[in-house]
Amino acid sequence: MSEVSFYFDFSSPYGYLAAEQMDAFEQRLGVSVIWRPFMIGAAFKQTGQSPLLDQPIRGPYFRHDMERCARLKNIAFRIPDNFPYAALVPTRAYYWLEENSPKLARLFAKDIYRGYFADGLDMSDPENVFAAATRHSIDVSEMRAAVESQKWKDHVRKVTEDAIAMGAFGSPFFFYEDEPFFGNDRMDQLEQWISLSKGTQDS
After folding, report:
1. 8 A C-beta contact, residue 16 and residue 27
2. Domain range holding 62?
3. For the whole prediction, is pTM greater than 0.90?
4. Most CB atoms within 10 A, among 9, 51, 126, 176?
5. Number of domains in the chain
6. Which long-range contacts (CB under 8 A, 24 or more apart) does 151-157 make?
C-alpha cells in the first residue's frame, strides 16, 4: 500500500483541520497515512516565520480563514486562549504510544487536537494531556515517565530535524513518494496527485 507522510504540530489549526479529514482521505485513496508530529517552532527559527496570528496584516486574515475552513468542512473549531503553545508533552507521548500501538496513538492525537481546538482546553498543561490519556485507558503513570524520558526527547528532536531536512517548514506538510505538499488547502491537490500516480502505475 502506498504511504503518505503527514507532518503536523499539535498547536497548528490547519494541522487539526487536516487530521479531522485524514481517516476519510486514507480510505478514499487506499493509502496508508503515517502521522508524524514535529516541533514547528524549530522550522520557524530557520525560515524566520512567526505564528500566524502574530503576523501584521496577515494575522486577522488567517483567523478568519481558519474559522471559514472549519465551517466549510463542518469541523468544530475555536481559537484557544493560549494559542500557540509548545506541544512537547503530547508529541513525546504520541511517539511513546506509537511504538506499541499506532492506532491508539492516532486516537490520542485526535483527542489532543479536539481538546485544544474544539473544547478550548489548555494543552500546555500536561494534566490536560494526561486526562486525554485516561479516556483511552492509557496508563498515565507510564506516560508521565515517558514524556520525561531522554529516549522520547531525543526521538522528537530527530523527527523534527529529519522533517526540516526533507523540506517541511509548516503544518500540515505531506510527502507522497518524495513529492511535497504544504497546507490543509493542498489536500485536494495531493489527492489528485496520488490518483494520477496510482493510475500511471496500474496502466
Report:
1. no
2. 3-202
3. yes
4. 9
5. 1
6. 152/92, 152/93, 152/95, 152/96, 153/92, 155/92, 155/95, 156/37, 156/38, 156/39, 156/88, 156/91, 156/92, 156/95
Q: Which residues are bridge partners to 35 per DSSP?
A: 6
Half-sphere exposure of 8 (CA within 13 A, CB side): 28
Do the Cβ atoms of 167 and 180 come closer than 8 Å?
yes
Work out whether strand 32-37 and strand 3-8 pair parallel, antiparallel, or are unpaired.
parallel
Strand, coil or helix: what is 33? strand
User: What's the CATH code of the domain at 190?
Assistant: 3.40.30.10
How does DSSP assign 73-134, residue by residue?
Answer: TT------TT-S---HHHHHHHHHHHHH-HHHHHHHHHHHHHHHHTS---TTSHHHHHHHHH
- Low pLDDT (below 50) residues in the chain: none
Residue 10: how many CB atoms within 10 A of its CB?
Answer: 30
What is the rounded distance in angstroms from the CA atom of residue 169 to the CA atom of residue 156? 16
What span, in angstroms and rounded, lies between the C-alpha atoms of 5 and 33? 6
CB 116 within 8 A of CB 11: yes
C-alpha cell at 192: 489528485
Query: Cell numbers at residue 150, please?
Result: 531522554
Task: Please tell me the distance from the alpha carbon of residue 45 to that of residue 47, in angstroms, as a whole number.
Answer: 6
What does DSSP assign to residue 185?
G
How far is it between the farthest Cα atoms of the chain? Answer: 52
Residues with Cβ within 8 Å of residue 164, at least 6 apart in sequence: 42, 43, 46
pLDDT at 202: 60
